Amino acid sequence: MLIIQAPAKINLTLEVLGRRADGYHNLSSIFHTLNLADEARLTPADEMRLSVEDQVEGCETPVDERNTVWKAVALFQQATGWEQPFHIHLTKRIPSEAGLGGGSSDAASVLKGLCQLAQQAGVPSPSLMELAAQIGSDVPFFLLGGCARVAGRGETVLPLPPLPPFYWVLAKPKGVGVSTAEAYRHLQRPLADTMEEDPLFAAAGPHTGRLSQSLDRRRIETPENLMGYLCNDFEGDALPEWELLIPIQKRLKSLGALKTLLCGSGSTQAALCRDRFHALDIERDMRSRELDIWVVQLRSR
Ligand code: C5P
């Protein structure tokens, strides 16, 4: 049996540059993994089976072809011809439709796990990056994890030095999820003139460029150093669920969050905290029947 962690992510910057001819959008973003993680257990079996233990109240993760893990297995088998079936058991701690990348991370961790097991069986490994991009735009990032600048539709991943394990509080309204496709549609970005698939030409948005330089020069040593860089283009009226999120944002700010930040296209919001005690104070004050709350830290790998 192989056990593999699948961490959630936060977008420290998320700039949506333009709509592409293929219907996706070019983005410029800095992703960082968190210590909130799902877990995948892979056990050789007679036939492929997926089971899920949902630890987030109200989340019902599908166990059929709609699950990104199925896509990962099918693509891996196609690419290698290795047909060993597995029982995959997922322990889900990351909520879905929350902007935290749970489904994408699960798929990436299963690809990595299958690759490791295939190598042990003498099967040559395929290019996981290509398979990952076929599953979803955020999946290539999770093959690396840590901190990275992400460009194109998500397939270009340029590693950056990770940040220290700063504390955040995540707050998500129970039962409110955001469809990523819908959120992008509402942004109504103009048609871009390039698909920006080559990392050399993948222009960074202004905020992402600035943060990526400071990370490279290791200039961010405290949460206070980081707060001025955080941004997300999905924040605001363009997001259909924004009205519902405003009171949560206001509350986090009134409790002294250094900065609030929407995670991906929502519906989770993250509050950057001074330290662990500050995070635990905010968590205690935010606790309510309407919200799911987590205290998390940035995690390097
Ligand atoms: O790639 P993924 O399946 O995660 O994307 C879900 C949807 O989000 C896409 O169908 C697309 O509408 C939108 N999207 C986008 N540009 C991206 C990533 C996602 O328009 N870079």
How much of the sequence lies in strands comes to 25-35%
Low-confidence stretches: none
Give the helices and strands as they follow along the chain. Answer: EEEHEHHHEEEHHHEHEEHE
Helix content: 25-40%
Count of helical stretches: 9
What is the tally of beta strands? 11
Structural shape: globular
Using the CA coordinates, give the radius of gyration: 19 Å
Q: Characteristics of this structure?
A:
301 residues, alpha+beta, 7-stranded mixed β-sheet, 4-stranded antiparallel β-sheet, 11 strands, binds cytidine-5'-monophosphate
Short précis:
It is built from nine helices and eleven strands. The protein has 301 residues and is an alpha+beta fold. The model has no long low-confidence stretch (mean pLDDT 94).
Structural write-up:
By secondary structure, the chain is an alpha+beta fold. Helices cover 31% and strands 28% of the residues. Bound molecules: cytidine-5'-monophosphate (C5P). Cytidine-5'-monophosphate is lined by residues 24-25, 27, 136-138, 153-154, 180-181, 184.
Furnish the topology, listing elements before pairings.
Layout: E1 2-19, E2 25-44, E3 49-54, H1 68-80, E4 86-92, H2 102-120, H3 128-135, H4 139-144, E5 147-151, E6 156-160, E7 167-173, H5 180-187, H6 206-216, H7 223-226, E8 231-232, H8 242-254, E9 259-262, E10 269-272, H9 276-286, E11 291-297
Helix pairs in contact: 1-2, 1-3, 2-3
The structure holds cytidine-5'-monophosphate.
